[in-house]
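Two quick folds needed for the group meeting slides. Do the first one here.
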Amino acid sequence: MEAQATATVKEALAALYHHPDDSIRTAADRWLQEFQHTLDAWQVADSLLHDESSNLEILIFCSQTLRSKVQRDFEELPSGAFRSLQDSLYVLLKKFNKGPPKVRTQICIAIAALAVHVPVEDWGAGGIVNWLSDEMKAHPEFITGFLELLIVLPQETSSYKIAARPERRRQFESDLSASANVAISLLTACMGIDQLKEQVLEGFSSWLRFCHGISASELASHSLVHMALSSLNSDQFLEAAVNVTSELIHVTVSHGSGTTAEQMPLIQILVSHIMGLKEQLKDPSKDEEDVKAIARLYADMGESYVDLIAKGSDDSIQIVNALLEVTSHLEFDIYSMTFNFWHRLKRNLIRRESYVSYGSEAAIEAERNRRLQIFRPKFETLVSLVSSRVEYPEDYHTFSEEDRRDFRHVRYAVSDVLLDATDVLGGDLTLTVLSTKLAQAYGSCNNEQNPKWQPVEAALFCIQAIAKSVSIEEREILPQVMALLPCLPHHEQLLQTVCSTIGSFSKWIDAAPAELSILPPLVDVLNKGMSTSEDTAAAASMAFKYICEDCRRKFSGSLDGLFQIYHIAISGVGGYKVSSEDSLHLVEALSVVITTLPPESARTALELICQPVINPLQELIQQGDQVLQQVPARQLTVHIDRLSSIFSNVKHPEVVAEAVYRYWPTLKSIFDHRAWDTRTMESVCRSCKFAVRTCGRAMAMTIGAMLEEIQTLYQQHKQSCFLYLSSEVIKIFGSDPSCAEYLTSLIQILFSHTVQLLRTIQDFTARPDIADDCYLLASRCIRYCPNLFVPTEMFQRLIDCAMAGITIQHREACKSILSFLSDVFDLPNSSDGGNYREFINTIVLQRGATLTRIMIAALTGALPSGRLEEVSYVLLSLSRAFGENMLNWARESINLIPPQALTDAERLRFLNIISDAASGSSLHTVTDRFGEISDVCRRNKTVQDLVQSALRPHDLTFTVVPQQLS
């Protein structure tokens, strides 16, 4: 059998690497991946690695296979197999001591994974590090392989590819900490071998986080530290030396490392050597990767010692100046490394917690002002440096989409830095710095020989980025900026930023003195933006929305002009290049202005804004049923979405309610003839949802007809948006006694047809939107009209239905189901929920054992680990509501899990978590503790499958299996 499998592996690898047919290569790859999960893979991989005739392709595949088997599937081996596996891996490590390096690395990782799995005593006295020390001394000819294993050991402690239990992983970390001095001694002994210097540095970097027992003063004088720091000036070893130095920095600030004073001997020597690299940052002959490494070191130093730097000593300012040097570099990958430092420094300077040790409020304020005064010039320099990094390149028009995305990323990053600077400088002072840039740029823009728009655009981009930080009382610079905007050339990118700038300062424009007459020329600029290109139109439309939101009262006397802009944009004629998506900004803009009008004026204005939207829909309806059914959804939704925006933003409930009543026949025609069309139904339901949300109970004259329509159409077409619209109706009208009859009928019909669709997990998976919106609606019913819902048979059926669908993989649907269940369990303890306690108890007690089993299955692998908090909350709610019963149900379920997956101690721990949840543990605590059990049950695919096979989450007719059969 083994010989046949070995031959097949060789054939599959040959096909994978050399067969000309893609389908054959794909099939070979699939077979090899499946083979790696088999028991045969252990013996075949081991055998081929020992086989002298194996080529490199075979060796690489088999070393990766053996490594992954040790990491993931170690528990497949018999209990006594450790020693033979250890011996085999040791032979292989010596065999591949001189290469190939890829194979040797995989063998080292496999040995490290083996060490994580097994107790320290299995390696002999002192564990794997002492074993390795003995081997290195006894067989120095294999030093290369042994040293790589020494490097890999600490790295693998954080590898979650290794399917070890959490307590075993913690014990391994503890074992390594206890062996750190031995490891450091081994590395020190290898220092003198030149060809091993890089590996020694790499090993020292790996082990530093386990060196808890070595004091800062010891490290400061340690030969390995001096070797690393001296290697910072070596091109050959720079990268490795930077890694060590960076780890040393982290050691000095890590939790439990002691006070700053205790760490100061090491901090001083580190800072001194790092500051000595400053000239290399400017050396044009230096390789860019080396410059990046040095920049990373400066960034690490700045971020780690920011609390010391923020005190503002002369030495601190030297560090800040060095970081400004890094920020002045032209490459984004280099200068952006400092951005997190500036953010942390800003936080330290402005937050009160940084000054609590100064005692009184007066002393705190005095110290805060002293530090801000010291650092403001540095942040002014920072603003000046980064503001020039956002200029459009001359060849931007040739950029690929990926390059353009990268450029936008640079701009976003610079915007964040500018906002950090405004927190230190204040928005007005930052604006002053940027206005100087704008003035210089405007001069170059008017240069007749070589006019350049890019510097002006860059300065404006930075100014609009800090708009929210500039006070609305600012009167020196912004009036000049706003007066300048209409005078700038209408280059596309520049005009786009001009429009965005106008929108960003909408609140300032509203507060500006009337005598400045700022608004009319700016509206003209926005008009120009809407007719230049789609990109400028998008920026202009958004700016128009902001202007109308914040300056709405200034527009109330000039509605004619606004309506003209609106009608041109909506109609698509007149030269505007506003897309249908961006036109929604204009709809919203006019809607918020209408909100400022008195009701009578608002009625007239609302009619005017709705007509260009309603008329095209009515024209389509008038062409007959056949046309309405065949027209593309887009021709309907473009208008309906505008109606949604109107209903959402005109805050006149009675006026909007009248409009809804008036336009209901149009909406009903669309409902009736397009109910099969998901896209149109989602659009029209969204429009109705916003109408209900805005109008509230003022919409009573239409709500009955709307509910009747929903009920009828849902029975025929099962569109999930009908459920979502119903959720909004329940929220608004659920507690209205006059609507009880309507709502009872709605609940009964919608849920009765939904539960027929969702009988099995396969049904849920096929209809996740229905499941999501159904349980959102059910939760709304519990919160807003439990009296119409909870005492009904439909409530019980929905709980049964939820149990079938708990393990749906669709994230939103799953969350809605889990939220519904926790709402059910929490209801009896709510202020008005006591009336339902007996009813809910009866339902849950009948289903508790099965429900608990499914929830434990969800926790242990049936649902993704990202759903852990939601699952934990359901278990917490169930525990609090059903105490001892829940503990019994949990015990039954947990006892079904085979001992290969959970030990007796782990079962007991699992039950204790549930017991503690019932007695008042917080969600955070319960989630963390459940997380460990979840990791144990998911530690590899074999264990996870074993657990799920025992719990059978989809088997709702499950009966408890006797303990001896599990």
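Then this one, please, same format:
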Amino acid sequence: MAVSMRDLDPAFKGAGQKAGLEIWRIENFNPVLIPQSSYGKFFTGDSYVILKTTASKSGALRHDIHYWLGKDTSQDEAGAAALKTVELDAALGGRAVQYREVQGHETEKLLSYFKPCIIPQEGGIASGFKHVEAEEHKTRLFVCKGKHVVHVKEVPFARSSLNHDDIFILDTESKIFQFNGSNSSIQERAKALEVVQYIKDTYHDGKCEVAAIEDGKLMSDSETGEFWGFFGGFAPLPRKTVNDDDKPADSHPPKLLCVEKGKADPIETDSLTKELLDTNKCYILDCGLEVFAWMGRNTSLDDRKSASRAADELVSVTDRPKSQIIRIIEGFETVMFRSKFDSWPETTPVTMSEDGRGKVAALLKRQGLDVKGLLKADPVKEEPQPYIDCTGHLQVWRVNGQEKILLPATDQSKFYNGDCYIFQYSYPGEDKEEHLIGTWIGNNSVEEERASALAQASKMVESMKFLPSLARIYEGSEPIQFHSILQSFIVYKGGLSDGYKNYIVEKEIPDETYSEDGVALFRIQGSGPDNMQAIQVESVASSLNSSYCYILHSGDTLFTWSGSFTTSDDQELVDRMLDFIKPELQCKPQKEGAESEQFWDLLGGKSEYPSQKIVRDDENDPHLFSCNFSKQWLQAKEIYNFSQDDLMTEDIFILDCHSEIFVWVGQQVDPKSRMQALTIGEKFLEHDFLLEKLSRLAPIYTVMEGSEPAFFTRFFKWESAKSAMLGNSFQRKLTIMKNGGAPPLIKPKRRATVSYGGRSVSVPDKSQRSRSMSVSADHVRVRGRSPAFNALAATFESPKDRNLSTPPPMIRKLYPKSMTPDSANLASKSSAIARLSSSFEPTARENLIPRSVKGSSDTSKSNPETNDKEDSMSSIQEGMQEGEAEDDEGVPVYPYERINTASTDPVEDIDVTKREAYLSSAEFKEKFGMVKSDFYKLPKWKQNKLKMAIQLF
């Protein structure tokens, strides 16, 4: 499209260069930028142009343009707003979606910019109306409609305006009444309360009373009587009369019209296809409620203005005030538009649009204007963050038919692609312990075991009263949270379950289950030591990729292979994974292009292989949908510009993050629908409402209200107190309103200790207790730690104590004043621990220290049977050897050098989860900066944090 400076209004100079809203009012047929203080204040006699600029994750700026027409605006001003919208789009490079908005029939997208509502004021620039803030208050009656965004309309102040189906707000000088029709929903009532709050703040300076009136409530209630007093006393409400606003908008099969020289002529066709649209022309697609004006990329600005006028005339001539006109540029069609066609190509080239955007930017730059916002910004590359504490307690089971087999700690990160697994992870949350239960489904697993895994995991969640989040994960689509929990993840070919073995026998398929003595090739990937994977692939040269490193072994022969595009960080991951796969063998490094013949022989000879790295698409911005599900039928409605307040406790919502989705279930959702949460997520992936090619294998999380994990809440500006409130959504918002706009602080109930297979959280199974160590046949390796733990450990570890293949952790300045280079050298371990422990205030409850540790030596000796019954540490007494020391608490004492996890001469037959109990009182205080009794008053996660810091955990 050719663009000249005469086509660009000076008022649009610099528009759309940063994320946010910009609004112009049409004055004398020209746009005039209004100040931000006036955003959301619309006058019925005016027309406006609204630009919404959004910055995507990739750095690109997206634009939506709306032109709003007040009910009293002149036809000439409305036409000027429509044309100026086309000009603004041209100035932005010709890629914005443009919406025609009519007062009272605004799109939900526009209303989402001005939450909670738009309440137009009488008057306008043409009438010379001047809004006076101090004018006398006028009693007004409003009707509110909508569950997610609220359409507010002023109605005559009369009893005849009321009905049982809607919600009404009566705004008087001293009090605001909300009248809830008996047939209105709880969600509508809750949203209307937001309008009440807006009226209170806007027109009463936040200084008036608020009353909620229930339809049918007895007159004995004083506020109810006061409300009806404004209408001359109580009387039965009249039957609701159907007006134009209540009539559903007409809809009909799409009709395609071609616009040439301002005239729209219909196109006769049996099937709508993309091929009917010519890039050199403009078209109108009339669907009744939606009227689309499609503009080819090679059309002129005059052609586009002509098509815009033709669409306006089509709606006005047919008298369809509710119809929404949406103008779209070729290459940037909306999902709604594409869905009207019987066929639409999966990809549409947009190179021409980028070229046109550059031409506009160059043109404006010659005029001395700042054009940085018109060009696509460089994408910001950030390492994905797990948003989950990685120091918790992990259990993993392999599914075997209808049962599950608990894996030992040494094998809980080793999966087979022919099997299914269930994992349960408990970790310290913001103010309580959090739980995540999930299933991992191997690509070659059998259907029966997939169903068994999902059923068993769901029962585990149900048995814990739906407190844990539930994750469904397929091989190859694992989220960052999963990899960070397991830290070193290995996927072997084949399977160990009976289901897999029976399947290959029935199908007469050769068993490819991994063998340590056979030939195996592993692709190494991940972003760091806390997130690394080894994936077994076919042992052929075509499995190689220049962007990865690999491990190849055959019997006693071991090779590592580094692609030409790999980095030193990639090669470091290979060194780490060798300790898990073949720790006892010496490897022969191979670089791409300099391989030995033996290497190629093991792979069956040379062949071509790719060089492009496997990249998952995580650039899409999240979308929130409200969902209704019934008998395999799913209806989803998108919530624009969403916030935490949009999550209604009576409903189910889906947060679509493209690479993974979350199904959020409100506390007030009925149990039957709650159990279908995972099915709802699967149906959502199947329907792909945004046509964004969602993978059916994308991870699905089900999240219960009140137990939202951090990797869900990070998409919101989250207030935990809101999700912890009791009552329905209307009662909650009413409580918040009466509490001055803040949710009341509710102290969470103390939860009972959750049992894992007969074991409590506080005393996990010995094989599952520690997540800080991984043990192989010949090696003991300190596993990756969270950044906070690394910072602490760096204070205490010395290079000679550290595994040589583990680089020094990055030191973050947790204590800026005390951790300077000079002072760090002088600070002792005990003083550092003291600083850390000083921030931990002991709880008021009883000491949590076991009796055999807490009690005196006399008590421990005199009643060993009682101690054995009450404490799992009674074996300490039985294992005492001659010559062992014993401290004043009745347990054997060993020096720190023999009980820490890095010890070269460790003590045997001790309870490794309570290593600190074997320290003498003096050495305990020196190491921890506190006495044992204070230590055991700390929460479990804080104890573990201290033990981790000095390598006792």
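Slide caption for protein two: The CA atoms of residues 556 and 585 lie 7 Å apart.
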